[in-house]
Design a protein that fits this description.
Blueprint (H helix, E strand, L loop, with lengths): L10 H7 L1 H9 L15 H6 L5 E6 L1 H18 L2 E6 H4 L10 E7 L5 H10 L6 E6 L5 H5 L2 E4 L12 H20 L4 H22 L2 H8 L7 E6 L3 H16 L2 E6 L17 E5 L3 H15 L4 E6 L11 E5 L7 H20 L17
Parallel strand pairs: 1-2, 1-3, 3-4, 4-5, 6-7, 6-8, 8-9, 9-10
Helix pairs in contact: 2-8, 2-9, 4-8, 4-11, 8-9, 9-13, 10-13, 11-13
The structure holds 6-O-phosphono-alpha-D-glucopyranose.
Length: 368
Amino acid sequence: HSLDKGEYRHFMLKEIYEQPEAITQTLAGTLGDDHVLTALLGPEAETRLADIEHVHIVACGTSFHAGLVARYWIEAQVGITCQVEVASEYRYRTVVVPKNTLLITISQSGETADTLAALRFAKDQGYLATLALCNVAGSSLVREANWRLLTHAGPEIGVASTKAFTTQLVALLWLTTALIQARGGDKQQIITNINALKSLPGMVEQALQLDTRIAELAERFANKHHALFLGRGTHFPIAMEGALKLKEISYIHAEAYAAGELKHGPLALVDENMPVVSVAPSGSLLEKLKSNLEEVRARGGQLITFACERVEHAEEGTAQTITLPWVEDCISPILYTIPLQLLSYHVALVKGTDVDKPRNLAKSVTVE
Ligand code: G6P
């Protein structure tokens, strides 16, 4: 039962392990062999998808990070503009809404005060429609939006969001595919996305097998006060989410940078007390980072890299590379989320924090 920890020590761990099943539920009834089934968005949505020329995404916290990944997908695969913003900023500023813009609000709970206020604010802004991407069917957000896309991840109890995030990403890749289809776009891309999504529960299952290896690695963080997370492209928001998870439950100060920004400041902070976690699936990031990180290594800095098993990597000194199976680019950010969730979980265990209820944080922030 979802409201019971069962064999798991914490809800967070249980929810991490539920991800293959949660993703399967998100995708249930949404995919054909070479097309996606868009009726679930509602009758009006189905006919109007083709008219969308711009997308605005508004959310908070982890849900905001899901939106940031979607921007890469929507602009690259659909070829329409996509802007992503935190709800607390969006709701109080003057927003320019071009004709035929879809507003997407993303929220696990559907009750986050700022996100709900953003949706209400958007009502008078001339959007083509508003869409709630949410895990809770009867929530305020879902009730008040024109269209809905439910993640069906099941109840999430741990304050640090895990399965809600990966299922949001799954729904957003599905929506990206729906937009390509509605616009008569690249058929091959549609099929690639569909097959990749179908393979995802199995790949996540494989990534979960890294648990023991990551638990060992977590020991290295026990006496650290800071950590840096690096990524590029769709993996930059994944690095942000990795840093947020570590902050939330282990209370270690963690920051994420787009890897190319390393030399524009954060490199000055790096020494043996600063673990540097890179999400570097393709190896191109690793190549680009190498010269910067020589310096890190020379000073005993710890480099932890999550990379694709097909890419050549060297284990040198204190540098550690953990490999994940090869997957299509489109689902790679979803897969690489898993080891970062496990890392923050195990670091929190080492530090002895209250994993499911970290201090000062709430599962759902229903007041401003
Ligand atoms: C709180 C939670 C986060 C969550 C954020 C947005 O800060 O602790 O885990 O990402 O709210 O919540 P929502 O329900 O709108 O996704």
